Amino acid sequence: MTMNAASPSISAKPVAASGLSLGSLLRRPEAGAFLGLMAVMIFFAVFGGITFLQPAGMSSWLNVAANLGIIAIPVGLLMIAGELDISVGAMVPFGAMTVAVISGHYGMSIWLGIAVTLAFGLIVGLINGYLVIKTAVPSLIVTLGTLFAVQGIVLGLTVLITKSTSVALTVEGPAKAIFGDFLFGGQLQVMVIWWLVLTAAYVFFVHLSPKGNWLFAMGGDKVSARNAGIPTDRVTILLFVLSSTSAAFVGMCQAILYNSAQVAGGQSFIFNSIISVVVGGVLLTGGFGSVIGIFFGTITFAIVNQGIYYTDFDRNWSSLIIGVLLLGAVLMNNTFRKMALSYSPKKGAK
Amino acid sequence: MAAPILALRGVNKSFGPIDVLHDITLEVRPGEVLCLLGDNGAGKSTLIKIMSGVHQPSSGKIELDGAEVSFPTPRAAQDAGISTVHQFGGTFPLMSIGRSFFVGVEPTKGWGPFKVYDRRTANAVAVKAVQEMGITRITDGDRLVGGLSGGERQSLAIARAVHFGARVLILDEPTAALGVKQATHVLRIVNEAKKRGLAVIFITHQVMHAMAVGDHFAVLIRGAVAADFKKGEKTREEITDLMAGGASMASLEAEIEGYMASHGGHPPPPAA
Ligand SMILES: Nc1ncnc2c1ncn2[C@@H]1O[C@H](COP(=O)(O)OP(=O)(O)OP(=O)(O)O)[C@@H](O)[C@H]1O
Ligand SMILES: [Mg+2]
Predict the structure, then answer these.
(1) Which one, of A23, A8, A218, A241, lies nearest residue A119 by Cα?
(2) What secondary structure does DSSP assign to B119-168, as a single string?
(3) B107-133 pLDDT per residue, tens
(4) Cα-Cα-Cα-Cα dihedral of A88, A89, A95, A101, to 10°?
(5) Strand order in the sheet with B59-64
(6) Residues of chain B found within 8 Å of residue A1, distances taken between Cβ atoms
(7) Is residue B13 in a domain?
(8) Of these four, A90, A271, A286, B259, which has the most CB atoms within 10 Å of its CB?
(9) Residue B230's pLDDT band (cuts 50, 70, 90)
(10) Per-residue pLDDT at A68
(11) B41: left (phi > 0), else alpha (psi -120 to 50), else beta?
(12) What is the reported pTM?
């Protein structure tokens, strides 16, 4: 592609001081998420004392955030690109059960269990992605279908193979240390490391590498994105593979950590990941958002989810707080997005 | 006369049971502006979508430099040097001007696997390109596209196509949303592209714009090429008639004027 790029003789003023002014920070997609995070931190510090910021308290919400965050980021990227994946709710128990049946029930190598689990994640992602691009049925409906289908497979096959709905699994050695252990013999799960490393990788690919631009274009206007030469089908499939493989990965790590897998559970990841993503400033209809915002949104959710135990409130109130938080965050994000849209540099200086 | 860069030979296109294009044969040559004229729904946009890889012909051939090719994706057409501004869309409301301009062809800096998007270059190039289209109010490539007016967005899309158009530039009703000044800029840019040796395909409903830049005119009526002629071979009235799908606009206008003259300046009542 010919690109007579970087001709320095720009007649316009070069990008006017777009540094770190308060205004430019507020126009970023993660601004609302950051303020929301501050708000819940202060709320729980006041009502719960600061125990939840001490190591024991911190590991409780960091663990929740890590398990959720690894799923929330790819779900958020799908949302940025204009799609939704709710089948993650079935992929978590599917991942847990696959590794438990192969390496626990049948007693085969844990590495084989891990490989097959991730391969199943990949296959379900391919099916989701392929159905979405070929049928043009909204991805909410397609993944609702695979959600139930996969739930049925997990329950049916597990009972058929093991005559039980819960399967034990004992893992030792490096696989345990890498995927399902506590750090330094404490309460912090190794998952937190995975989460931080994956978040850093996603930040790089989405916001720094050139191809991250494609997601935003696809969510903004899929037809124009394709017309501009973006392989939209391939990117869509890749994103679905990422989300379902990530969910299978989280289920697998939980089974290795807790030495057992259950057929149920996992549905909470559907709503919780969507809440984290939307609180994190991603626009539900696509085209706008950031990985850092999702990261903040996930921590905010985890703090509310766990922080309630450090207060005198009954834990049932945490749903109320999450509901209010969600609405507040969405309103705030809307305001900031409007600010970003109407922003133009100051007139005056020619 | 130069050999054609791009040619369609006997192209048909149907969407399921609906036949949209019939046996289209057309050529575009370097340094020449082909004006594609025709009524709403005549098939103009469908025709250029076949040239830009959005649709595949149902039958018939596409030739590039005399050799048969196919453009399975818009990317394939772009890689052959064909750059298109479609009738609708082309920009992304929640993206910055710089990012929107470079969608799919992002400039990078850095090295190896750590190549990163070069925001500064993207913004500078995009701002310069839209300013050359006569939109001098845009000075900051970080502004979001959704904050621009419709015409400014259209100018941004055209600036993008002109920037990346290596051999063939296709503009589908580029002047539709533009003010007089910006439309003039677009016509000037079409002439410049032509002088640089690009082939330009220009779709418009405005006879004045067509007459101002066209070297060669093709009129589509219900999906078939109804007329194909060179500049100077037809009068403005004849072109107007053809653009209206063959109905005699000129005589209709004369009729209305005659009616108004004989009825004290009142237009005729709407037909029953
Ligand atoms: N994807 C499609 N599926 C079915 N029919 C289509 C499709 N695209 C276009 N058509 C039909 O093809 C015909 C020609 O459409 P096209 O958009 O090419 O017209 P046009 O000449 O560009 O009109 P206008 O001047 O209004 O832009 C129309 O009747 C339209 O309904
Ligand atoms: Mg059209």
Answers:
(1) A241
(2) HHHHHHHHHHHHHHTT-TT---TTSBGGGS-HHHHHHHHHHHHHHH-SSE
(3) 999 887 788 999 999 999 999 998 988
(4) -150
(5) B18-28, B6-15, B59-64, B67-69
(6) 78-79, 105, 164, 166
(7) yes
(8) A90
(9) confident
(10) 97
(11) left
(12) 0.88
Domains, chain A, with CATH or none: 25-342 (1.10.3470)
Task: Name the domain count of chain B.
Answer: 1
**What's the pLDDT tens digit per position in B132-180?**
888 888 899 999 999 888 888 888 998 999 898 889 999 999 888 788 8
From chain B, the residues in CB contact with A230 under 8 A are 75, 103-104
pLDDT score recorded for residue A329: 84
* Inter-chain residue contact B108 with A210, CB threshold 8 Å: yes
Which residues are near ligand 1 (CB < 6 Å)?
B 15, 18, 20, 38, 40-46, 87
- Domain housing B214: 6-86+148-262
Which ligand 1 atom sits closest to the C-alpha of B173? 27
Distance B21 CA to ligand 2 centre (A): 13
Give chain A positions within 8 Å (CB) of B92.
216-217, 220-221, 224-225, 287
Question: Average pLDDT of chain A?
Answer: 87
Closest residue to B74, CB basis, from A15, A227, A340: A227
A340 touches chain B (CB under 8 A): yes
3-class DSSP state of A104: helix
Nearest CA in chain B to A210: B117
Q: To test ligand 1's pocket by mutation, which of B20, B35, B37, B56 has the most ligand atoms within 8 angstroms of CB?
A: B20
Which chain B residue has its CA at the smallest distance from A13's CA? Answer: B139
B50: in domain: yes
Ordered alpha helix ranges (H), A259-316: 268-279, 291-307
The CATH number of whichever domain residue B249 belongs to comes to 3.40.50.300
Query: What is the arithmetic mean of pLDDT over A325-346?
Result: 81
